[in-house]
Specification:
alpha/beta; Aspartate Aminotransferase, domain 1; seven-stranded mixed sheet; three-stranded antiparallel sheet; 14% strand
Length: 391
Amino acid sequence: MCDPTPPEPIPGTDLLFSLDRAVTYLNHGAVGAVPVSVQRAQQRLRDETEANPLRFYAHGLVGRVSDARREAAAFLGADPDGCAFVGNVTTAVSLVLNSLDLHSGDEIVTTDHGYGAVRFAVDHACARAGAVHTVVELSLCPTDDEVVDAVRAAAGDRTRLVIVDHVTSPTARLFPVARVVSALRGTGVPVLVDAAHVPGQLPVRVDAIGADFWVGNLHKWAFAPPGTALLAVAPAWREKVRPLVVSWEHAAGYPHSVEHQGTLDYTPWLASTAGLRTLRSLGLSAVHAHNTALVAYGQHAVGRAVGLDPDTLPSRPAGLSMALVPLPAGLVGDQSAASALCERIADRLGAEVSVNAWGGRGLLRLSAQVYNRAGEYDRFAGRLAALLADG
């Protein structure tokens, strides 16, 4: 197999962000990074708030949030009247769980590729209700058919919700969520799609997926400030949504009852439009092409450095700006060891990456964004090999 060729940088993109130049930042998928122009847009909103707080909160805020929501929904191919801004995917999952009538013996189905905080939320909801959390086990790189068949087989008469990832966080897989939704249609089992990593990383038409609930973070790959996610709810569920906090817009119903909570900080949501403009100005196709080519290069460079044959590296799903490098066996056995290695890498190498324990082995996840350069992966690869050799 020929080594991937790194892409030419998109001109000027290394100046768009205020990241510390002393840090090799290869983990954009964790919380994203906010362009300077978006930081300034948010700061102007903060200044407006402080100049006249009462006017900001009491005059026109509902309409301004709705306008920003409509722009985000249009970007994602979703019905704006069925969408609501929330702080992040984890918040949306808790909101959906709060809207279910869970009883003893009921079941929620997830997969073992799911995000840790979502697992905690499901466990908590099930413990309160006496329900069961069923986790579908899959291989590291399952086929689409395997994902669909395993999830469909797990859903039964007592299943009240299936949660499936569009892009998995610890394993960087792309799951066939539209097919999962289709397979469960007619069973009465609602589906929540965790699309935390989708907005800005993959083109998507949310309405075409047809899920009962879909939620994605705009602060990871769509350049919005932290605390910006969009929840899309199918028409049949909108009147059933129970906000986690009951406040002034409760009588207005969904989505206003979810979005408006008094003196919440609304500036991330209002500034999210600036993030979308930045992404469009760079060119969505150019950003995708750059990032996917660069992460492929980085995966091979780091994989070789830790002694892996490039032909044995986990496949990288088409279109993803994240890729996996399995770490040597025995190095990371659980999440505590994964977190410790992540801290060592940050402290000793000045690099930010993601390390997870999955299936008894450590998985290093690399990301690529327009501010990254091929040389960063090369330098990190050599230094990581030395760090691991030192034990």
